[in-house]
Amino acid sequence: MRVLNHLFENNKRWAENIKAQDAEFFSKLSQQQSPAYLWIGCSDSRVPANQIVGLLPGELFVHRNVANVVVHTDLNCLSTVQYAVDVLKVRHIIVCGHYACGGVRAALLDQRYGLIDNWLRYVQDVRQKYDPQLAAIRDETRRWDRLCELNVIEQAVNVCQTTIVQDAWERGQELTVHGWIYSVQDGLLHDLNLCVNSPGEIAAEYQSALSVLNSPANK
Q1: CA 116 to chain CA mean position, Å
Q2: Is 44 assigned a catalytic role?
């Protein structure tokens, strides 16, 4: 017995609404995808990538995992990045975390959930790297927010250091890596001031992003 018929009905209405705006939309979309952006975000159901930035299907290539982690041993993520960069020729890679991330909170508080603990070890590494800074933040929610921000910055730098992105820059391909964060409380995106266009910019952009976080306005 089908128990998810309402989702099929939702899909039908969605497709009809799209075709009402552009009768040829799906026929054109089926021929080719040519997004300018790769979005690397969290799997959280409250963070729908396309809707957040107001883009239609075909305009945003997406990879999502718990806590928007990018590590050099994750072939799933790296394969997505390589396809986006080498085949689709995206011009922007956006690493977007979000405030109130459950994965980041688990890493912050050393909570145990089973298999996922191994994945969140990467976020715990970020926490340990910035432990003195985090410990100085008395408010627990603000400390959680700060680790969410720091995690985005670290993962964006990881993207910059992949052989895929490094090779693209070496051959002169136009490619920019961004670090953003999304607020589930108000639906707004925030730029974390990390925007890298070449290998020579990584260190300066990294330090600039950290300086902004540590400025009096963000204390």
Answers
A1: 18
A2: yes
